[in-house]
Amino acid sequence: MAISKDSGGRLPSETSPIGRFFIRNAKAVVVVVAVLTILFAIAATRVELQTPTIDLFPKDHPYVETYVEYEDIFGGANVIVLTLEVKEGDVFQTDTLEKLRTITKSLELLPAVNNYSVLSLAQRKIKITTVDEIEGFKSDPVMWPDVPQTSEELEELRRKIYAHGQYRGTLISGDDKSLMILAGFFEKGLRSASDPLRDVLVDMARDDEGNYDPEEVQKNIEIMENVASEQVWSLDDTLFQAIQKIAKNAEDDNHIVRMIGRPILLGYISEGFPQLAKIFFLTIIAILISLVMYFRSFRGVLIPMTTAFGSAIWGVGFLGILSYLAEVQGIDPIGLGGYHFNPLVIVVPFIISARALSHSVQLIERYDEEYKHYNDRQEAAIATFGGLSKPGILSIVTDAAGVFMVAITPIPLMQKLAVMGGFWIMSIVVTDMILNPVMLSILPPPKDTKHAAGILNKILSAMTRASTERHQKAIIAVTVVIFALGIYFARNLVIGDVHPGTPMLWPSHQYNQDTAAIGERFGKTEILSVVVEGAERDAIKHPKILMTMEKFQRDMEAMPEVSSTSSIADLLPGLVRIMHSSHPFWELIPENLRDSGFYLGMLIQGSEPGDLDRFLDRKIQNANISIYLKDHKGTTLRAVIAEARKFIEENPIDDPDNPGTPLAKMRLAGNLGGLLAAVNETIVASELKVTILAFAFVFVLCALTYKSVWAGIYFLIPITISNYLTYALMGAVGIGLDVNALPVVALGVGLGVDYGLYVVGRIEESYAVHHDLKKATSEAMLTAGRAVFFTAATMVVGIIFWAFSFLRFQAEMGMLLAFWMVISMLGGLILLPTLVVTFKPKFVTHRVDTERAAKA
């Protein structure tokens, strides 16, 4: 049906039968949406805040498979590092060593601790091996069971540690000013950093199906309450709070305790959640004030906020439904399991809610315009639905596609976020595109459709003149130059962490300060392990395996990124030397199986249960090599992994007597360093796929909707530019592309096309009336363009508060999001109108062209 000029450029309501159906049944629609929202809200109560380690890493990656297989044997990623530093003197003081023993014992008693992974000089398993002419071979604890009391005993301890240097630089710093304690914790006891230790005991008792014996758990709780009564912590503390109390109890005027490790990091983040709540509250208040100032009406605030919160309830509620199906009904339709909300990705839900609010502002802006024309609430609502259904639904679907594409990244957190986020965005079709016109048709009509847009209209008019009158070539030329610069500087983008410490927190945060201090004294803040997997029982006794391990360690230690390594192969040369009158010539690994097996057996027999668990399994079939890294930057992990791969390829562990028969193989890579390396490799492999698929989806959907390949190309231009400019910004300010940033970047694809869809959609509609692209562009800029500018500006104003977050990640993502919004807004308000006016694409002018052809 052709549109006459008398219609004012608005589609008659009859051309939107779906919109008419919704508006004519407005009350029923409200009831249905309200009931569904209540059901989703009930389901949302099932969603728990959890930060499981394994969710952050690609489950099918070979490094992660190695980690999962050997986590319970050689330790996992949940390792904490505590150091006890002295300000005056050195650590060879009775008071200092007493504090070390107290800290060690307190850590050993914590729920979920893996006692075999606790290491400090105060433990029985930290030994020095000697041979006495009378007593023969013996292996004595360095400092157990008693702490040296006299100056003579302290000097003897110093002498032993100096004479047997294996613990200097590892458990005692090279300058004798700091002592290190390491402790690992079982994953299933650390579901949430906010859980009290009482709940941790319950989690530890659960089987694979989540069941536990209440009576047995109650007995354990009573036992642990008795234990805790003599400690500085209680079962009502979280793990982080308990460790903090242990550390604080040891501190005084001459002693400082520093703490790092994943459980510590999660504890700091959990502790700061109240501040995050305040920041999001201030953000919402800023948005509310902006809505009030712009619309000057109750409905102008009510409807956008209803849309934002309603879609949030649907999104989280959908996650709750998946949780119910998986945990209660045993049905997991997606196959990911563990449907919970990870607070580390809190930025993404905010972005989605912001998109919902943006769509709502477009609808209200259009409704006010339609009401001014029709002077009838229902007809205005129907016309609003008809006019915005195409660009609105198209932009929502492209938004959702960007999020759904993240699911191809084989990281459980990303996949769950993609499922929840994609559904959340699609729910905006209901809570916004359907519900908003319905609510507008029910609520009292606007008394004044003039918005607070005086200055805004002047800005938009200036943009319109630039893109329609005389600056088109200059705009296109500047865009090409900026795009070229973006491509050039995007090369500086780093996959993984850019700085030492954690990018989640600011450099001035205590965690990163402690990381720097520990790294300076010990030269290590992260562990990456390699498992030597023997072909049969007792395989590790073979000299070829032991010598290859030793060679591998020397190779890794030659790297500037590595501070030291440790394995069972370190202990044998010293033992062999001792057994040969301590002659340096014999400090080696025996070359025949009989001798190497004999000495390794002697070492095992002289140890207590658990002493060697960090090195060997009970079958002596598999061994662990720990590589201590100076940091976990992306460049560090890539360099270490590359060197390890090269060594493994060049040094197969084959039986020298049977060439081609493997004795063992070396598997990468465990501990947190291995997991982070797996994430970085996965992001490298997935990022380009996610971007290409998201771009391809936008292209295909726009091309099909407008029935023009050129439409797909036009809408790809601004998102391609904003994508590269964002990468350039990330490289310039030192933001790495990691598991936290990837979904934000993916969301940006949809964000980049949204604004353009609304503006171009309105240009197309207005051109059908005015038959003049410049006039149509001017009208589009002062209507759809005004809503685009307002929503972008409102989001940027709200995000300003993120700069004050204790989470560096949140502040950086806020900056990134604000930058992306501004670039996308400029693309939608300047670049696309310029391209349309300059090249006059047929997908914009086709209505008039068809009408003219029909008349001819």
Brief digest:
With 856 residues, the protein is an alpha+beta fold. The chain is built from 29 helices and eleven strands.
Explain what you see:
This protein is an alpha+beta fold and 856 residues long. The protein is 60% helix and 9% strand. It has helices at 17-24, 26-44, 62-74, 94-108, 151-163, 197-205, 214-228, 239-250, 262-271, 273-295, 299-327, 347-374, 377-404, 412-426, 428-442, 454-470, 472-489, 510-522, 543-557, 571-579, 593-605, 634-650, 671-706, 709-733, 742-770, 773-781, 784-799, 808-839, 842-855, and strands at 79-86, 113-119, 127-132, 136-141, 178-185, 255-261, 526-534, 562-566, 622-629, 653-654, 662-670. Helix 25 (742-770) packs parallel to helix 28 (808-839). It is elongated and about 105 Å long. It starts with 16 loop residues before the first helix and ends with a helix. The model is unreliable at 1-14 (pLDDT under 50).
- What is the count of β-strands? 11
| Cα shape | elongated
Supply the number of structural domains: 4
DSSP helical segment count: 29
Structural class: alpha+beta
Q: Could you say what the CATH topology of the largest domain is called?
A: Multidrug efflux transporter AcrB transmembrane fold
CATH H-tier superfamily of the largest domain:
Multidrug efflux transporter AcrB transmembrane domain
Q: Beta-strand level of the residues, as a percent range?
A: 5-15%
Widest sheet, order of strands? 8-9-7-11-10
Q: Which percent range fits the helix content? A: 55-70%
